[in-house]
Design goal:
Elements: E1 6-10, H1 14-26, E2 30-34, H2 37-46, E3 51-55, H3 63-73, E4 79-84, H4 88-96, E5 101-105, H5 109-124, E6 132-135, E7 138-141, E8 146-147, H6 158-169, H7 177-183, H8 197-209, E9 219-222, E10 226-229, H9 249-252
Parallel strand pairs: 1-2, 1-3, 3-4, 4-5
Antiparallel strand pairs: 6-7, 7-8, 9-10
Amino acid sequence: MTGRAKILIVEDEPAILQGLMDVFVFHGYAVDSAIDGKIGLEKALNNDYDLILLDVMLPFVDGFSICNKIREKDVQQPVIMLTAKSSEQDIITGLTLGADDYISKPFSVRELVLRVECVLKRSQKRVEQVAIMHIGNIRIDTANLQQLDTENPQQFTRREIEILHYLQQHAARPVPREELLEKVWGYRQAENIETRTVDIHIAKLRRKVEVDSKKPQYLLTIRGEGYRTLKQGAKVEFDLSETDKGFQAEDVGEV
């Protein structure tokens, strides 16, 4: 990679922490570390990092709480969470709190490095977007990441805005999950990546932009094809694919 992006790794298992530090130093990164959640939270809030790699299960302060505090301070700070492979709820919770991505343990070091590179590239090259985005009955201030014209505005993450922007740019057709992973997340050969992050992000967005997230009118799943946005007043039959049914908006929780 070019340059020396600075990464904070928060991991409480010494062997894993040292191994991750060695890997990213080898790949040219400047690396800082924290062995528990208390130290990790202090460093994350008081220093500047290009990316934070954050374990979920940590002593003193868990990774979810740290991610939440990071988002309160900086909605654009890139965060990747390390989760237990069997814990689907951890994945949903982490992405709901605003993590850019997750990777499940045990993980391939090569895949982790590629994920970090993709998130960093995407964060350093933000796509130019309209100042005010319209979807359904709401307007979104894309600079401040929040809904307009309401006393209790919905807050959006930068990733959510990028998803909506890409779908609206290609509103004439359904956009496959693999295309979103490649164009929004920046992953290469996305068809080989096992991740539910797209499904979870769509479920979160439906909860924010739809009147009834179970019967979406503007952010639709086209069975076997992908996702599509519709303008207000357009007609289409509601259709949830089988792969979405495990990620209904009510499973995601409040943001």
